[in-house]
Please model this.
Amino acid sequence: MARTPCGWISIALVSIAMTALAMHAASADPITAPHPVPSIQDTETPAERDARMRWFREARFGMFIHWGLYSIPAGTWRGEKISDNGGEWIMNQAEIPVADYKALARQFNPTKFSAHEMVGLARKAGAKYIVFTAKHHDGFAMYDSKADPFNIVDATPFKRDVLKDLAGEARAQGVKLGIYYSQVQDWAAPGGNQWPAIGKRPMKRSSARWDPAQEGDFADYVHHKAIPQLRELLTQYGSFPDYLFLDTPAPEMTPELAGEIVKVLNLHPKLIWDDRLGGGYAGDTQTPEEKIPAQGLPGRDWEACMTMNGTWGYKADAQDYKSSAELIRNLIDTASKGGNFLLNVGPDASGQVPKPQIERMLAIGKWLKVNGEAIYATQATVLGDSASWRSTTAEDKLYIHLLQWPGQRLHIDKVPREVTGAYLLADVHRRPLKVVHDGDGIDVSLPAKTPDPIATVLVLTTTQKK
Ligand code: GLC
Model:
């Protein structure tokens, strides 16, 4: 049927509108633009989200494990120390040819690795979950991957699937299992992306390749390696993983490619995943690195990940460690702002966690044995901050983490609850401390000496103000 002039006009108007809409969507901020594939965060109800996030929000403390072939060079390559980056960046910083780096696999035989001991370290430290590097930016899979032979079972004399061992021990010891996967950077696979290492080559192009063997199409890499490996990681270890820590997004990870990964993640509706996929997906957790946001990240689940000595992967010369006291106070500070603290260990080429890292993890565990009630399953402070203390919140208690001993009297202004009593968490007899109400504030009488110079927890029992 012939179209009338107004018919053609309406078709033209509709097509103009459709084009404008498409241009708006393409130009809109990627985070707010509609996702090509809705993620679970787009579709679940607040109640469903709270149920899915519950264990993570209660955990408050996890142990990151960065372990891979990079533990063999341990920060030095043919005499060049990679000073600007963590040990796990050595292939990039030293521009190691793919063939030379892959050859390291033939000597990787970490016979001192014990999954029982490694998961046991997390448990003794009071960590409620571990996050293990299944594949880092170097492209080497620390698990039995059918998708790529460059993995610990097929390419090394060790031949053991360490992720399988860790998953078995995590299940046996009651620790949640997270998997770290570098879905964008892959320095050994054709088409994988390479961020320029800090201190090296200025960003000449979106990818800073140094070996022709890395040439290839990024989408092909995502289709032939990243997605198949994510599929196997999400299915070959039973109900695990509970948490997926993706890393280093890049412009090449378009909303459409990221959407293809989201389709895989959507097959695992209990899975929690982070904010580093790319393609405009915010994920579940924000992941500040080596710092604790001063005001926390209100309205967002978040996890501050941190090293003890400035490197994620093992570096033999990285001996400048944060003290146990500083690490415990970082845990307290993070919890007081409503976040999780993910503290890193980096096993060496023999499969052992360096002693200074074991000592610090055990020191944290010792503190949590006494004070864990003031960390696990708590909420952020309702008292603001003080230079000398932090606070965490429970339904009928406020926990004051005293970092500097105030002497025999502590004053707190504006307590938004009725304080019905006070005692020190370290006091097994919970002897009541004198509380004097002073307007909206309180004064609490304290013993002359602190029971724990790192942090002593004062418990205020409370009811809601009438
Ligand atoms: C950065 C580093 C990476 C490390 C990660 C931990 O992305 O590039 O090596 O695994 O931080 O958050």
In short: The pocket of alpha-D-glucopyranose is lined by residues 66, 86, 88-89, 247-248, 289, 305, 312 (CB under 6 Å).
